[in-house]
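haha ok so turns out i had the wrong file open the whole time. this is the CORRECT one, sorry everyone. sequence first:
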Amino acid sequence: MTGASSDSTLWARPPQRDAQKRWTLAVMCMGVLIAQVDTSVVNLMLRPIGTGLDASVSQLQWVVDAYNLAYACLLLTGGVLGDLYGRRRIFLTGILAFTIGSLACGLAPNPALLVAARSITGLGAAFAVPVSLAIIAHVYPEPAERAKAVGIWASCNGLALAIGPTLGGFLVNWWGWRSAFLVAVPVGVLAIVSCLRFVPESSHPDGRRFDMAGQVFAMLALGALSFAAIRGGEVGWDAQGIYELLLAAVVAAVAAVAFTVVEKKVGDGALLPLGLFRSQPFSAAIVVAVLMTFGMYGMMFLVPLYLQEVRGITVFAAGIELLPMSVVFFLVARISGSLAAAAGPKTIMTCGMALMGLGLLGLAFANQAYPLWLAEGALAVIGLGLGLNSGPVVAVAVASVPQHRTGTASGVVNAARIAGAALGVAIVGAVFATYAGQGSAIEEVSTSRIAEILSGLRAGFLVGAMAEWLGALTVIVFIPQSSLGTKAKVALTRPPEPTRPAGSIE
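then structure:
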């Protein structure tokens, strides 16, 4: 059909053989798994990295945030490029970039090059993760099969949290922190080879074009905001520090305004269609997604510092201590959709955010004499809250927009989650540095230094807890109990229309 999207002929094909479907799903899960394991492992390795490269707290923050920023800024771009130019092509590009970036991380001789390499891995993840979900939707067009496949794909996030800290701790303990980056290289190569062999190509341009101006202003706004937070903890609150912070804040504000103007002008072809935010539940879900990962990743930045600096345990032992949270999250996340359908998303999401805040409050009281089982209990409560909330927040966002916008909505909520993670590490890390000072990872941990660290940890955990409780309040006020009605469930599982002409208006 002339003018039809290239996806139309692909949807008309006979269903692929079950074996090829399973291989495609396995490859997509592999891509998500290595991206998420990388995130959970790096938080655990901060002290060994700081020791090996003589890095300050702010440099360690950028090791985490360089990945998160690139991921957040380019996540929407990855999905759009996949729709425009081919999802398998963009997935392969993402995995290749991630593999090259992991190799560069493992060989980095100084903090600056490590941060640059982490940006490359973040770019790779931003390209691979969103198109992996679109590829699964293409390969599994039947609603029941698709729902099951997407559930398996989503559970990889929980699996990564479960195995990441333990695997990372084992590798660091025996072969050093560089090995935890290098282990991703053969996995990435395997994913590339398997993708070329089993994954079909698909696209759905639908008359859209790439929104370059929107991308540039989005990156500038988020980057300036995170720079302000991290730099604030580094330079302090003297005249020079305040000047730099104000300058970064002005850049972020101007870029945000410019982004809004550009996206309004572009309209439906925008990187972020602003019309989506006319839906109150969608807007609230985005805010909740940001606050959820703000506290979560701020906590993931601080807990390894507490376990290693204050308690003096090894990296491997720290990974074991994080297992209760990871396992609880993995188990609860698998049933969160059913719980939300039965009790309503408002109830489940409110409980999830409130529990995360409660767990963070428990960690705020941790000190040298704090029983480790109490810290593990607080982490398990955080895992419970995260497991309850992570699935429903995506479902509410996707169910709150028209069916032909579900892919965009999914990309937006995932971008919000990663943006929250980047800001959480930046702001919580800055609060920690303000109270604890910068110091160096190789500095002798004296009694006075431990007191400073505990003061910073307490402040950081409390900021994270308040963010989670603000999220719970947002759910109570703005998200209706009926957000996942019958119509929404159909929209979540129905495959895209196969023969919609390019450029048509829904």
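The CA atoms of residues 4 and 501 lie 4 Å apart.
again sry for the mixup
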